[in-house]
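EI: anyone free to look at a 453-residue chain?
SC: sure, send it
EI:
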Amino acid sequence: MNQILIIDDEDKLRALLAKIIRLEGFDVIESADCKTALKKLEQHEIDVVLCDVKLPDGNGVELSKKIKETYPQTEIILLTAYGNIPDGVQAIKNGAFDYITKGDDNNKIVPLLYRAIEKVHLTKRVHKLEQQLGAKHSFDSILGKSKTIQSAIELAKKVATTDTTVLLTGETGTGKEVFAQAIHQASERSHKNFVAINCAAFSKDLLESEMFGHKAGAFTGAIKDKKGLFEEANAGTIFLDEIGEMTLEIQAKLLRVIEAGEFIKVGESKTTKTNVRIICATNRDLQKEIEAGHFRQDLFYRISVFQIELPPLRERPLDIEALAIHFVNLFAAKTNKKTKPLSHEYINVLKQYSWHGNIRELKNVIERSVILMENEELTIDTLPQEIKALAIQNNQQTSSSKKQLSAFDLASAEKIHIQKVLNYTNGNKTKTAELLNIAITTLYRKLNEYGLD
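SC: here you go
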């Protein structure tokens, strides 16, 4: 039930308002002054405050500012006996939902109260979604217990609380954007935008326009002004994926952003200021790119202040099972399917595969597997042909190994030796027993045991 706090030192008016609001099904709490009201706010989860402007120990306009600072999700409706435009303006500036006059606007209170409650519900839903989003992109969402991934996580956590530029390196599919989002989420910029761009996905001209924006008429098709991603990310974080694909000309502009915090839009002469945290990623060896003349050395020094290498999946087999289970649960939920626990055989095949596409490839394989599964069970038959071939090869090697081992155990060796002597004596059992230096009864027993009779 929504809780409403009425703050008014006029007992009769407060009681009347409380009665009207209770009839609407709300839980009402009453207070006659600022001090008591603040205690009530500490004790209860108040959704809306109805507050008189003039109170015995303070002013409702100033109280509304204090309430919004401490309880930002609580909405405040101010009531006054004498309408005052400056007070009304200041009340709204302080975060009040509305400002109405007593008596003349009594019929407006209930509809206004419902609108305030609606805003409270919306604010709470948004806050809950933000919390879920934060949890989704936090360091806790990065799965893995292996030393290599834990080491990368620890480094990322340490740099997250700073504004230092970060360079994430590693093969395609190792989770560089996941790390970038976690760094942003753990930073003081987490309440601002996280903007990502894949530098390999655009031509030189389009990439420049996407990053820095353009003025209308700057080029064919530029019919209106466009904000660039550096403007969109202002006060937040920008993630430049595949930075090694960026042309030298755009690299020079990026260097200016890092050094001076400013850039020039395409088709414009004046500079635009920006304040962003930059995280870059690449699967290229930038030192080799510098030697080949494809990447600026001064830019490399700027972006690699703090470098984190993300390990390929084949170097962290310990984590494959946890990742596989996570993706199975994800795609089972998406397809509304139930799944049985993964078999040891299924997990072992995943662990033996080399995963050149890393986590991204594993994710795609599991999605396919969930789609193809029958009887709620993921089997090797649901895996792609190249992984199934590995399973068949492993089974053949295991079978061959077992045969080889059986050929060298004592019983097998004895059986082979008796058969050779029998062949030598043309099946003469008496002669065979003599040559083996055993009793004829012992020979018959062993022939029966080994199925040679």
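EI: The first strand starts at residue 3 and ends at 7.
SC: 👍
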